[in-house]
Amino acid sequence: MVFTHSLPLVPVPASVTAGEGRMPVTASTLVFGDSPAVAQLVEAVERRTGIRLATTDAAADAGVVLGVDTAADVPEGYTLSIADRAVITGADEAGLFYGVQTLLQLLREDDRGWGLLHADITDAPRFARRGIMLDVARHFFGVDDVKRYIDNASALKLNHLHLHLSDDQGWRIHIESWPKLTELASTTSANGDPGGFYTHDDYRAIVEHAASRHMIVIPEIDLPGHTHAIGVAYPELVEAPVLNDSLVSESARLGQPLPVAGETYTGWGVGHSSVRIHEERTYDFVRDVVRELAALTPGPYIHVGGDESLGTPQADFDLFAARATQIVVDAGKIPVAWHEMGSAENIAEGTIGQYWGNTVPQGTHAEEAARFVERGGGLIMSASNVSYLDMKYTEDFPLGLTWAAIIDVESSYAWEPTAVLDVPDTAILGIETPLWSETTKTMDEVEQLVFPRAAAQAEIAWSPKDAAERTWESFRERVGGLAPLWQSEGVNFHAAAEIPWSER
Ligand code: TNX
Q1: Max CA separation in the chain (angstroms)
Q2: pLDDT band, very low/low/confident/very high, at 3 (cuts 50, 70, 90)
Q3: 307, 399, 407, 453: residue to mutate for ligand 1 pocket, most atoms within 8 A of CB
């Protein structure tokens, strides 16, 4: 395959010059370095080529040299040059890891065998926050599935994993102080499928694996709405379901049951549940959950939800938003909330908002998002009509929903996170691309929706906005070049017709 546009790299590096030739990679190519990235490289090369590279203690003998040089103060940055040998120098361990991901994209097979395409790269991210979400509440995904998600997302240089750990359909993390949550409210999923939950050890294993791939885990407990499951375990904490008209008609159209107090809920309807805002017991609960999550989570953030609390009166919602975010601050963490919580004037200072409205903000969404900035926090952009991974690619795609948009790969690529809201560019911390799992029961199904669109989001988050290669024409060819890598990694990507997929 000749890459006419540019090297097959996604996200496109900040600065890249392609060379003419290739550096052969054979069983006698040696690797030098003393970072965890060495073993990660050796294993990935073996998965891709079947060749197991040996390591050497002598840099002079090595064909691939990995190192870290902290003199350059460029968080997550790296340089990579491939000519007679390949040299990657990370500005930190994360940068070295990202340099290795870039190298793996340049590892190609042709008639002569395996080789690395010659290149000279200096790279660093545009945004420090490059996130992806997995909804483990609507359908549960076990530890191995989440590790696979982490591996494939971090290979695209995404560095935050948001886990949506609770929703109406199930509670997914064990809480020692409220044990009935997992005992009674974790066993089912959407559509009546089986559920599951993470023990503290499971959760720690996820956090550790994520850290080894330079990803921070952001746990979310969705409050005060999306809390029907809490009431299955502890009925005294929640209000009776509020059945709005659209819930009733949508449930009928989909043939789904309506929520019944105290019973597991298997439909997809939203906006019917709320914790009790005026009971102190509710705040004991939130405090306990936040405390346990904070103890398990080395990352600085805890997400307290806040979306679609349609049955909660506005004043109650605002009261709750202020209290819940303050509880997170008191636990020593930075709160994150869906943008609706910006309706509360006194949301805790420094709370980060996650904007999930349209790229053309509707109703009060923009005002709510702006509040986080006024209160000294920043914003994560998850514009639903472009970055939602659970939307269908085409009208007839078998998985996914359509409420925000039909999002083909080209439209998922075509948005600019700083151009959505009227806030200073510095308030935009980065982006997050969410996968809601109403329609996806297995990781294979999840990957159909996630890849290749997560690659488009990764490029928006990582690559300079004005890089010459930041065009759809270039992107579609470069992302097509990832097919053999994804195949060897077992990524069940959707081979969208918009993309010229390369064979090797
Ligand atoms: C809206 S976006 C939700 C989720 C659903 C999703 C489905 C957001 C913050 N809330 O509860 O799963 O739509 O696309």
Answers
A1: 72
A2: low
A3: 307
Q: Can you tell me the distance from the alpha carbon of 400 to that of 171, in angstroms, rounded to the nearest whole number?
A: 22
Non-local (6+) Cβ contacts of 234 within 8 A are 178, 180, 181, 285
CATH number of the structural domain 15-123: 3.30.379.10
pLDDT tens per residue, range 322-366? 999 999 999 999 999 999 999 999 999 999 999 999 999 999 999
Q: Give residue 311's pLDDT.
A: 87
Does 308 contact ligand 1 (Cβ within 6 A)?
yes
Contact 123, 77 (CB under 8 A): yes
Q: Is 201 exposed, middle or buried (0-12, 13-18, 19+ CB in 10 A)?
A: exposed
Rounded-to-integer distance, Cα 377 and Cα 396, Å: 40
DSSP conformation class of 192: G
List, in order, residues 6 or more apart from 443 with CB less than 8 Å away: 141, 145, 148, 149, 492
What is this structure's pTM? 0.97
What average pLDDT does the segment 146-156 reach? 98
Residue 1 has pLDDT above 90, yes or no: no
| DSSP structure string for 118-176 | EEEEEE--S-SEEEEEEETTTS---HHHHHHHHHHHHTTT--EEEEE-EETTEE-B--T
**pLDDT tens digit string along 269-287?**
999 999 999 999 999 999 9
Q: Are both 15-123 and 129-465 of the same fold?
A: no
The predicted pLDDT at position 4 comes to: 45
Where in the chain are the domains? Answer: 15-123, 129-465
Cα(170) to centroid(ligand 1), Å: 15
Nearest CA to ligand 1 atom 11: 270
Residue 401 CB less than 6 A away from ligand 1: yes
- Does ligand 1 lie within 6 Å of residue 356's CB atom? yes
Please tell me the distance between residue 435's alpha carbon and the centre of ligand 1 in angstroms: 9
| d(CA 390, ligand 1 centre) in Å | 9
Task: Tell me the mean pLDDT in the region 372-379.
Answer: 98
Q: Is the peptide bond before 11 cis (omega within 30 degrees of 0)?
A: yes
What mean pLDDT value characterizes the chain?
97
Residue 160 has pLDDT above 50, yes or no: yes
ω before 434 within 30° of 0 (cis)?
A: no
Q: At what angle do helices 453-462 and 472-480 cross, to 10 degrees?
A: 120
Q: Domain 129-465 adopts which CATH fold?
A: TIM Barrel (3.20.20)
CB 13 within 8 A of CB 463: yes
